[in-house]
Amino acid sequence: MKTRIEEALGYIGKHIKNQPKILLVLGSGLSALAEETLETILIPYKDIPNFPISTAPGHKSRLRSGKLAGCELVIMEGRFHYYEGYSMDDIAFPVRLMKRLGVEKLVLTNAAGGINRTFRPGDLMLIHDHINMTGQNLLIGKNDDAYGPRFPDMSRLYDKNLNEIILNTAKNMSVDLKTGVYAFMSGPSFETPAEIRMLEILGADAVGMSTVPEAVCAGHAGMKVAGISCISNMAAGILDQPITEQEVLETGLMVKEKFSALLKGFLPLI
Ligand code: HPA
After folding, report:
1. How far apart are CA 45 and CA 55, in angstroms?
2. Could you tell me the CATH number of the domain that includes residue 78?
3. Total domains in the fold of the chain
4. From atom 6 of ligand 1, which residue's Cα is the shortest distance away?
5. 187 alpha carbon to ligand 1 midpoint, in Å?
6. Which of 22, 158, 208, 219 could form a Cys-Cys staple with 112, CB 3.0–4.6 A?
7. Who contacts 104 (Cβ-Cβ below 8 Å, separation ≥6)?
8. What value does the mean pLDDT take over residues 225-236?
9. 179 alpha carbon to ligand 1 midpoint, in Å?
């Protein structure tokens, strides 16, 4: 009998023939980054057997395969957040599906609140490490040895080699790319100012509600991982103003050109 992933793989395999090596996940307000793919194939999540469906604003809920800057990609236009009520198994599903399809690298993007006071909304931050504040771990439960070990090493989760290529590309393109530690909070409420002061003391530079489960899942499965945050707002309490979803989506649009240029710059090199 076919597993749930094998059923999805059968469907995807009929549509995606070009053997993509990179999965790009687009975060809130960042779906415009996918618009320039060539030889595009769009697959709505709802058509893929057993695939979860994203409900977050600014997410398109479809898989896109195509070429960007000559590079064969699969793009998730919309991801699955823990705060939407998805289980960690749901969040793992697309990552493991892509692993089974032969994808070797995962590039994660997200919108995040800036904690580091030298950051400004519209900045891009390469994630060099994370802090998981949720008490959840995607790998809790019976380990599937076919993907990876019970106790996977996380000391090199965000791949050094990929990060070097991304940083060099940014430098050559004169894109100001910050680096930092991403703190994963469950959401969906934004943080309190006290929580942000705590995260600052713990060494976080940015905070968000995604990315870490997918990164852990991919790392466990032996995929190489990179993550880039768009600092969409300063985190709670840093400025004397409330945080709105509107602001998060607007900043995503504002950085579109810069983010897209950076992606097109490094994707063919990794
Ligand atoms: N906190 C958590 N997640 C976020 C934020 C924030 O300030 N901005 C965008 N995503």
Report:
1. 11
2. 3.40.50.1580
3. 1
4. 113
5. 8
6. 208
7. 21, 22, 223, 224
8. 97
9. 17
CB-based contacts of 177, cutoff 8 Å, min separation 6: 124, 125, 126, 166, 167, 170, 171, 228, 262
pLDDT digits (tens, 9 = 90+) for 149-165: 999 999 999 999 999 99
> What does the pLDDT read at residue 58?
54
Q: Whose CA is nearest to atom 10 of ligand 1?
A: 112
Q: Is the pLDDT of residue 198 over 70?
A: yes
Q: For the segment 102-126, what is each residue's pLDDT rounded down to a tens digit?
A: 999 999 999 999 999 999 999 999 9
Domain that includes residue 104, residue range: 4-269
**pLDDT given at position 132:** 98
Rounded distance from Cα 200 to ligand 1 centre (Å): 14
d(CA 262, CA 256): 10
